[in-house]
Amino acid sequence: MERCALLLHMFDPSTHMKNTQLGSGETQLLDRLLYEEEVQRCVAAFEQQFQYGVFFAYLHLREQEVRNLMWVSECIVQNQKGRINDGIIYIF
After folding, report:
1. pTM over 0.85
2. Which of 9, 47, 57, 91 could serve as 42's disulfide partner, Cβ 3.0–4.6 Å?
3. Where are the domains of the chain?
4. How far apart are CA 34 and CA 9, in angstroms?
């Protein structure tokens, strides 16, 4: 983790993963943490002016919005309306 100092704050020091193989729950947690970090960085890109990173950030935030809509629609189809808030990553 020393090489990835920027991502170190996402993990609690007491829960560092020592094995390289992750279970399905841990993989989903890691995916969620990485998506949340990506959304935070994309939102931060809008705070600076006169750069092309805004277009990149806009496209990635739209992709995240589509992921959120897919999650909501899958929860409704499977009649799991109580789990809708579990998979949504809030953009703003």
Report:
1. no
2. 57
3. 23-87
4. 12
